[in-house]
Write the structure tokens for this entry.
Amino acid sequence: MSLTYFFFALLSILAIASAIVTISAKHPIRSAMALVFHFFMLAGLYLTLQAQFVAVMQIIVYAGAIMVLVVFVVMLLNLGDEATLANKYQVRQLAGIVLAGVFGLSLVYSMLNLRNMLNEFPTHTVEFTTVQAIGNTLYTNYFVQFEAIGILLTAAIVGAVMLAKRKIM
Amino acid sequence: MNNLIWILIEALIKAVVILNVILLGAATSVYLERKISAVIQDRIGPNRVGPFGVLQPFADVFKLFFKEDIVPKASDKFFHSLAPIISLGVAVAVYAVIPFAHYVEIGGTKYYIGIAPNLNIGLLFILAMTSVGVYGITLAGWSSNNKYSLMGGLRSAAQMISYELSMGLSLIGIILISGSFSLNDIVIGQANWKWNVFLQPLGFLIFLVSAFAETNRAPFDLPEAEPELVGGYNTEYSGMKFGMFFLAEYANMATSSAFITLLYFGGWQLPFSPDLLGLAEGSIGLAVAQFLVFFIKVVFFIMFFIWVRWSIPRFRYDQLMRLGWKVLLPLSLLNVVLTAAAILIFK
């Protein structure tokens, strides 16, 4: 058994376990911290695929920025256990169960057909192991898409400032 | 496979040695802090334990080990114990990518001094670790179930998020100049006094101020401002758990000093050509000399941190936020534009 395989198995098991804790924990902070742990395990999985840049970005963006804000808000609101909220959202729960069922079925279907589809995967791959390679690809082949994301982000920032500012001008 | 085991053993030995160096370094910084603050305030400072009181930090740590560990009844026990571990763990993990010297060549194999100094995402790894360090302090504040602790934790989270932005942006200038994320490449690019501090004076100033804010040191030590918050996020901590926060603070200070040295002051580069000493590239003697140069620079910046703490009064919270968002962030953006333009014109 190679070391990569060992780490892949270990990280996958921990990732799935922490994902289960995320959705089953009663307390929002426990849930959020389990999700942070899950992101770390995902970053580890990216490392086994030689995608160092993606791994570090996973930690900086998700674990370091987005989840910090989530934890921040949960602490400020001081949310209690979910038990009191359970009765309020039965319709949503039902919709969630239906959607999860559809997703699960599609997952099972695609896994069953995986053997037939393996040949259809494109042989052309994108080099994304190092920062230089990602930069080259982004600024040549995917330049228009990159700029479109830039416009989207600018719009989001302007929107956030508009919402947060009491007086414009 | 056999080869892999050797790589793992090599990394393990390096990790054990470096861990001990960090803890010893943290103890030394505590002693330095107490002595320098004493000089600044015209006192004598610790002088009872050992010659000139040098064993004082060890006496402090032993005292902390033997103290009763009190956990508040209403606290979240799990996170209360986890928080100091996150703080210290993150502070130590950063050293995985720091190069202490270049390399030693034994029997045709190059042994780099550091656990993984050539990692091609070294710089990003350090940013990732500092951004995760927020959890230690925030969780400590929340799990203690104490309003002072919570305020301290929230302040620290807001402060670290705000200053991380300008810190990351100020580093872009360095990356543009060296063209690499690997700390060893950045140091190699600064040979012969081509220190980044001369090329990036504005970036250096922004980084320095952000580093003070990121390590929660005075004048930005609002998370533990005694007059307002009792002790801030570590109010409800005692015994070695408090000791771990304490060690993490000093380890972070040492990390920031090492980081400033590597990025802006030439890291382990000797101030003159190594030929003057008659030492060949890859010899043990040269590695020792490089390590000494690195060490002296780091100690200089640790002393600078201490000097600032005992000279400058604490900022007010709104002043801190204004400085971060309205001064440092625009300046760091300006620095990125200027550096990029300069590289475009002169290269």
Residues 69 and 130 of chain A are 29 Å apart (CA to CA). Residues 52-77 of chain A form the longest helix (26 residues).
